[in-house]
Amino acid sequence: MKKLFILLAVFLIGFNLSAQDLNVNKSKLKWTGKKVTGEHWGYVDLKGGALTLKNNKITSGTFTIDMNSLVCEDLESPEWNQKLVGHLKSDDFFSVDKFPVATLTIKESTSFKSGEAEVKADLTIKGITEEIMFKAKKVDNTFKASIIVDRTKYDVRYGSGKFFDNLGDNMIYDDFTLDVKIVTE
Question: Regarding the domain with residue range 19-184, which homologous superfamily does it belong to in the CATH classification?
Answer without folding.
Answer: Lipid/polyisoprenoid-binding, YceI-like (2.40.128.110)
